[in-house]
Structures are given as C-alpha cells and as structure tokens.
Fold:
Amino acid sequence: MTRRLLIVEDDPGLQSQMRWCFSEDLQVSVASDRDSALTCLRREEPQVVTLDLGLPPDPGGASEGFRLLEEIIQLAPMTKVIVVTGREEKENAVKAIGMGASDFYQKPLDADILSFVVNRAFRIAELEQENQVLSQQRNGTNIKGIVAASPQMLSICRTLEKVAPTDVTTLITGETGTGKELLARALHDLSHRASKPFAAINCAAIPENLLESELFGFEKGSFTGATQTKKGKIESANGGTLFLDEIGDMPMPLQAKLLRFLQERVIDRVGSVTPIPVDVRVVCATHRDVRNLITEGVFREDLYYRISEITLDVPSLRERDGDALVIARSLLKSLGDQMDRPNLSFSEDAVNAISNYAWPGNVREMINKVKRATIMAEGKRVTAGDLELSCDTSGTPNQLNLRQVRENAEKQAIIQALQTCNYNMAQASRLLGVTRPTLYNLTDKYRIETSQTTSA
Ligand SMILES: Nc1ncnc2c1ncn2[C@@H]1O[C@H](COP(=O)(O)OP(=O)(O)OP(=O)(O)O)[C@@H](O)[C@H]1O
Structure:
C-alpha cells in the first residue's frame, strides 16, 4: 500500500524542508491552509497528516488549526494527525491530543525526530487497518456452525453453553431462518448426549394423522398399512436429543400425548398398551408466539410450561448489531470456496446494503442472496446489485469525497428505476432522463443486473 503523507504548513521554507525529508519514501502532498488541506484529504486520502496549528487567517494563533483538526477527525477518523506546534505551545499540543490527534511535534524542525514520529504514525495506521480487517472477520463464538459478533447473539450463545450440559427442556423461539435448528443442534453437541442420536421432526410438515405414528411409532397391524412394527422419533432419539420443530403447530390431541410423555417419560406406540421408557432431552422450537396460541385456545398452557423450562429468544438478524455483515462475509467465504470462486469480497455499496437491509427471511434469505451473488459476481468484488439489494446511502454519514457520493447515488437511482420499470431499459432510461446507450454504459460500469433473475 502506498504511504501517503499530507503536510499542512503555511511557511514555504518549512514546506520544502519537510518535503525534502519525506519525498523519497512517501507520496507527499502539501497544503498551506485549511481549505486546500481538506481538498487534499478528500483527494489523496493520506494515512498521516502533519498539521501546523498556526494557519492563515490566524497564523499567530491556533484556532484555524484546531478547526481543521476537528474536520479531519470527523471526515477520516482513521487518519493519524501529528500536530506541529511552537516550543512554547505545550498547552495546544495537549489540547490537540485530547481532540484526537495521534501525536505532536515541537518546532524547530529536526529531520530525524520528525521522521521517527511520522513513521511511527504510519505503522499505527497500518496496524489499525489490519486490526479492523481482522475484527470484521472475527467470530465471537466457538459454537460450531454459528457465526455471531453481536452482543445480542453472543449472550444467547453464552446461555446456550450453560444450558447445554443440563437436561432441561428448552424452547427456542424466533423468526423463520434465525438459526433455531442450528442452536438446537448445538445444545445437543455440547451436551453429554452428543455421541447419541439427535432426532428432529417438523410438526408443521407432517399431516396430523401421520404425526402421531411418526412421533410415537406403531405396532404391526395397528392400522391399514402397518405391516411391521416401527419405532417413532421419540424412541429413536433414546439416550440423545429429540428436536420438535414448529411445536406451535402440533395438533391439540397430540399435545396431550406429548405432555404425558414429558411427565412420565414413557411412550405407548400406536396400537400398543405397553409403555416403553425413553430417556431423551427435549428441545422445541417455534416461530409463533405461543402465548397468543394459548389465548386463542390452540396450545395447552400446561404443555407450554413443560417445554419452556428455559427459553432462548433468538433475535432477528435486523435486531443484532453488526451480525448481518459478519455472517454475510463468512457465507461469502464458505460459498465462494464451495463454488470454486475463492477470494471474493463485498464492494462498499454491498457492505452498506447488507447493513441497511431488514432481512425478513433472516440467515436463510441471506444464504440465498450470497449464493446468487457468488455466481453472478464479475471479478472479485460482489456488489449490492449481485445480491439483489438496493444500496441506500442516504443515511451514510461523512462521505469522504464527491466521487463516492455521486457513484453511490447514481447506482441507487439506476437500481430503483430498473425495479420500478420491471427491468425495461427503454422505460428506465426515460425515467432517469438519459439515453438507452448511456443507461447501458452505467449499468456496465456499476455491474448492475439489467434483467430480473430469481434468487439461487
Ligand atoms: N448465526 C448463524 N451463523 C451461520 N449460519 C447460520 C446462523 N444462523 C442460521 N444459520 C444458517 O441459516 C439457515 C437457517 O437456519 P435454521 O434452519 O437453524 O433456522 P430456523 O430458525 O430453524 O428456521 P425455521 O424457523 O424456518 O425452521 C441454516 O442453513 C443455518 O445453518
């Protein structure tokens, strides 16, 4: 990476001395007032700035320098600012450090010391950048398969680690696709039952008349078609964990039978009156509000208390601070490896779009979108368009330069116009007030899809 230094100094003699000190190793730009310094900052994006506080129109004071320091820190917070002060201005140096300057240097100029201070600032800037990249990739939990960095999800993971070794019946609630089944498996994997079976059944997916025999098994001849005795899910989970997904959809008559099992820990196969003892840990999940179901009279209150000895309420992806991006990056890596498209990364508009989107289908929806983007991306950068997300940047604070603002706004307007016109290029170009060839050029430039594709 090119090391870029901006020298903000109004004295031409000092300017050339400093330029001479650094121009061999660094890409140096020089500004002699606040305005030109901000222009250079936006244009060059230097990692390090040396800032003489005494700038015109207040060369004898420090007001203009402080103003500029504040603006640099607001616009480019990762930039390391070294404040240059006169010998008698210790107070200003201290104030500048308090405002966020990374270091200070006192005149008169000593080339060796100044080089030392500037090189150190570059090193810190580089370390911080590496650290930022690493922390974006970091997974905050060691639970297999679960990617999480948000305090909300990390707290669920900590509870899960405490609950797993116990045998308490656990209810996991949360919107569809939030990872309820994944957490149920983690409860099993982290328990003393890990080497025994994990049997899962989706109570909503099986017709009511078959669910009983699926769960409890049946004896040969107990109904037409029962040509041989068969164990149910509960029995097949013996010694391990039984996962009852969508428990909120379990029909009332079966709820009574399940309650009896939870109380007595024995089952009767369909067509049999001989109770069979079964040792299983029960984990249930639902996306429904069970309390509402109880009020509506379709879920037994006594069963609810049995299954919810501990409840894990899994937050939706939009309620987790920062998880969307961490999970998306992890998915991009694993899906990219699987599909032989390694080293893909998200473009800036994709990062914004991922963070701003509400993810109604949670992680499952994200898997679909990232899978699609992995296939569609041209080159190594995955854009918001590849993910079929619009890049709304209206809330993005402190845009660095006009290029960034203009490109983001342009992309967003084009995606919106295309969606509004159902991907009819002639209509979209009229809506945007440009010719069709111009629209094609722009969609090429920003790699925006020009036809509607369904998610993979
Ligand atoms: N935190 C996470 N990290 C990585 N993958 C996740 C995470 N949460 C969910 N997933 C993945 O998302 C998909 C959906 O998760 P899962 O089936 O556990 O959701 P669910 O809440 O049980 O959904 P439903 O209510 O629709 O059954 C799975 O492929 C799962 O592996």
Q: What stands out?
A: Residues 145-148, 174, 176-182, 245, 285, 287, 327, 363-364, 367 surround adenosine-5'-triphosphate (CB under 6 Å). The mean pLDDT is 89. The longest helix spans residues 111-137. The chain has 18 helices and 14 strands.
